Amino acid sequence: MIITKSRYEINLMREAGKVVAECHAALADFIRPGIRTKDIDAFVESFLLRHHMEPAQKGYRGYPFASCTSVNDVICHGFPGDYVLQEGDIITVDMVALHKGLHADSAWSYAVGEISEEARHLLTVTKNALFKGIEVAVAGNHISDIGHAIQTYVESEGLSVVREYIGHGIGREMHESPEVLHYGPPHRGPRIRKGMTFTIEPMVNTGTYETKLDPDGWTARTADGGLSAQYEHTLAITDNGPEILTQL
Hints:
The protein is α+β, with helices and mostly antiparallel strands. It has a single domain, classed as Creatinase/methionine aminopeptidase superfamily (Creatine Amidinohydrolase).
């Protein structure tokens, strides 16, 4: 069941989203060659707590960290640890803030120092794909119109869209209905309506869209070892179109 949100609930999500956006902005200056992914996780946890937000990922289904740090061929759910970022890496940092019972979720990909043209193209296309999806997230359209817009654009740029990991409704639960696919035909599934809140979070690969899972049961990688990037915003649907809750 899709749960629409009240203005009060959306306002709380907006407050959480602002802190998430501020944290991502701060990470842009913090991330550099020589730091460990667990340093990034500590930065995220400290930032959220200082701003009176709960790091909602920590403890979710047993996940032990406040963020996911996904480097190079890792698509999503990468464990923070002792890996030291190298010049030319790309890293996606995903975090969820919980504020008075409401969630806001955003992932962002970062270049570590100077990166290759291939990696730069991947980041540009993935970010553009997110906003292609947001453009069609308007009341009256179908949820599947989002995925169709994303897939059409990404494949026109010679890249591929991950199938297994998708966007989702969000609110009092981190994951709610509807499922938001980033691929597929248009004009399918539920219609978008005012008060819906959900994420759009395309994961885009340089090679195949196929994935593999590490033995930890969380870390998802590209099946061919190619690079992967992700950008994610939490949205609220209004009479005036989609409002991005996780940007400054």
